[in-house]
Amino acid sequence: MARGSTRRTWVKLHCDGILNGSIAYQLEEAEQAVWMKLIAFAGVINRDGQISDNDGRPFPRQFIMHRINTTEDHLESTLKKCITEGRITEDEQGLHITNWKIYQSEYNRQKPYREAGKDPTKEASDQAHRDRQAELDNRLQEDEFTKISQERQKEANRWRAEHPYE
Q: Residue 4 falls within a domain, yes or no?
């Protein structure tokens, strides 16, 4: 996790991609679990898909295995396949989930709201509620105005009927 940043509490997984995409046939079930845990681990680290320490150095494989609770065989076979297929790259700074910013864009879009303590969907819902309430209030005022105007007109007509020549 980058120094001074907050931990990511969720990551976006594409349901259709997991169930019907290439990982469904390119990775064995245990490897699929390792792949998803690597995504979650990258989310916790919060370095835009880079799996490394705070100084940008790669974690030892044993450390990664421990953190995602897998075996060496499963981790190595998953990394080998994911590197071959272009899902992960590896360099002197560690592992990198390919296209992290594209796949996790919703998290980044909502980040300013989370930091401000606001939920964008709740804010939009609250604004929609306020707008609807204002519309109803306006209608009520218009209805009351119309009702009062109609009552005054009836009263004026009644008075005119009672006082035809005044």
A: no
User: Which of helix, strand or coil describes residue 50?
Assistant: strand
Q: What is the pLDDT of residues 55-84, one digit of tens each?
A: 999 999 999 999 999 999 999 999 999 999
SS (H, E, C) 24-78: HHHCCHHHHHHHHHHHHHHHHHCCCCEEECCCCCECCHHHHHHHHCCCHHHHHHH
3-state secondary structure 146-161: HHHHHHHHHHHHHHHH
Alpha carbons 44 and 41: distance in angstroms, whole number: 5
Query: DSSP string of 81-99?
Result: HHHHHTSEEEETTEEEETT
Residue with tokens 């349901």: 15
Phi-psi region of 119 (alpha: psi -120 to 50; beta: other; left: phi over 0): beta
Q: Report the number of distinct structural domains present in the chain.
A: 2
> Per the structure block, which two tokens stand in for 139?
């209608």
Q: Are residues 39 and 83 in the same domain?
A: yes
| Predicted pLDDT at 36 | 94
- Residue type at 93? Q
Q: Is residue 58 part of a domain?
A: yes
- Which of the 8 DSSP states describes residue 59? P
Token pair in block for residue 56: 């940008």
Neighbours of 47 (CB within 10 A): 21
Residues 102 and 57 reside in one and the same domain: yes
